[in-house]
């Protein structure tokens, strides 16, 4: 999550922590290594050891996942395919097979369930597990993480990295520490020291532009962040300040929530140079439409039933060079359940704003008011088309 999700992240964390009893937990964060690309390399031996991108080639195509061989050239997920091809001329594009990824994801989920019922999936390829009271009475989160990684390798032919700690924030940081195929453990009492040495860009929720803004304030590492008092952080980062204050100290009281329901699915792009020209804005929007709908397709593939992931509201976000944020939303009476509907509304929202009053540094797009199969929660909101400046 980059800057777009900062307020939601802070509000969600505050609610979770308010509902959570104090005390240490044993948390594991498991993250598959280059999941989509690794499945393709496993199933197609001719791709092994070669730079692979899962996604559409050329035109409006976007990279959904990149193998580690491709990442060496700077190819990353959410990157336009034309850019990826320039960075890595030998890049091999493979169309996504979400049904195959879903099948493997279910295998992995079954492995998790041998150890705990407290599993919070974040996507097809990563999840939090609370093993404070594990089903097999093993007692050691580190040992359980080792056993899970070994079982994933033996049963799927794929590798996973894992982070073990006493809260979710630290476990997620740890899982990324020794990728690929790595394990990192942050024990009680070590969290603040571990975080102190990290660049703030590693903090969940801090995007490239956020890191630049922090650097301008003299904040480059966790230690720099911890040196700022809460009043300073609130003055500069608003509702995101409380999250940053706790994170810099290795504090996170959120529980693992196996019943967590996604309220929206979105994506965004932050630009190295601000953009203003209508054609550039339209091209960027097309990239983001492809990114978001790819995530919606992945969410669909992760479902245990056959229900279509659908929503009622499309939200366009524009962040100007002075950090002024504009959001534009449109809801429909029925459901938005295919890419054509989603794209048409997104394009209309942007066209209604052109020409923009100033260049923007970020554009985001979200499908919100999702249907989760519960009619009581699926009440249609009133139609709206409002502009809010925050």
Automatic annotation (TrEMBL):
Keywords: Cytoplasm, DNA damage, DNA repair, DNA replication, DNA-binding, DNA-directed DNA polymerase, Magnesium, Metal-binding, Mutator protein, Nucleotidyltransferase, Transferase. Residues 1-23 are annotated as: Disordered. It is an enzyme of class 2 (transferase). One of its GO terms (molecular function) is DNA-directed DNA polymerase activity. Mg(2+) binds at residues 31, 125. The keyword Transferase applies. Its EC number is 2.7.7.7. The keyword DNA-binding applies. CDD domains: PolY_Pol_IV_kappa. Residues 27-207 form the UmuC domain. It catalyses: DNA(n) + a 2'-deoxyribonucleoside 5'-triphosphate = DNA(n+1) + diphosphate. Monomer. Poorly processive, error-prone DNA polymerase involved in untargeted mutagenesis. Copies undamaged DNA at stalled replication forks, which arise in vivo from mismatched or misaligned primer ends. These misaligned primers can be extended by PolIV. Exhibits no 3'-5' exonuclease (proofreading) activity. May be involved in translesional synthesis, in conjunction with the beta clamp from PolIII. This is DNA polymerase IV. The gene is dinB.
């Amino acid at each position: 999550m980059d800057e777009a999700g900062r307020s939601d992240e802070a509000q969600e964390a505050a609610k979770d922590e308010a509902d959570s009893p104090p005390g240490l937990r044993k948390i594991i964060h498991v993250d598959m290594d280059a999941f989509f690309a690794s499945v393709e390399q496993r199933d197609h031996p001719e791709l092994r050891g070669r730079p692979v991108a899962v996604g559409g080639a050329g035109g409006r195509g976007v990279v959904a996942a990149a193998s580690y061989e491709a990442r060496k050239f700077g190819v990353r997920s959410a990157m336009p395919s034309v850019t990826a091809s320039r960075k890595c001329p030998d890049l091999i594009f493979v169309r996504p097979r979400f049904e195959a990824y879903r099948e493997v994801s279910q295998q992995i989920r079954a492995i998790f369930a041998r150890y705990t019922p407290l599993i919070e999936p974040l996507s097809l390829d990563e999840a939090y597990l609370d093993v404070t009271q594990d089903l097999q009475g093993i007692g050691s989160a580190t040992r359980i993480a080792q056993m899970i990684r070994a079982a994933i390798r033996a049963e799927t032919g794929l590798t996973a990295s894992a982070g073990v700690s006493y809260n979710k924030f630290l476990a997620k940081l740890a899982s990324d520490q020794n990728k690929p195929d790595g394990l990192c453990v942050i024990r009680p009492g070590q969290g603040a020291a571990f975080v102190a040495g990290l660049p703030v860009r590693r903090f969940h929720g801090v995007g490239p532009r956020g890191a630049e803004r922090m650097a301008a304030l003299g904040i480059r590492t966790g230690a720099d962040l911890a040196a700022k008092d809460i009043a300073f952080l609130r003055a500069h980062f608003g509702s995101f300040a409380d999250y940053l204050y706790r994170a810099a100290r290795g504090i996170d009281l959120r529980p693992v929530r196996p019943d967590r329901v996604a309220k929206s699915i979105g994506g965004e792009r932050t630009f190295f140079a601000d953009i203003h020209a209508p054609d550039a804005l339209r091209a960027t929007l097309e990239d983001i439409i492809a990114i978001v709908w790819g995530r919606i397709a992945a969410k669909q593939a992760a479902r245990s039933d056959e229900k279509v992931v659908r929503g009622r509201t499309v939200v366009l976000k524009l962040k100007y060079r002075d950090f002024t944020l504009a959001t534009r939303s449109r809801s429909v009476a029925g459901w938005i359940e295919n890419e054509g509907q989603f794209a048409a509304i997104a394009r209309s929202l942007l066209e209604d704003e052109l020409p923009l009053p100033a260049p923007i540094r970020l554009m985001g797009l979200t499908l919100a008011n999702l249907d989760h199969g519960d009619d009581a929660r699926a009440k249609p909101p009133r139609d709206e088309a409002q502009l809010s400046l925050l």
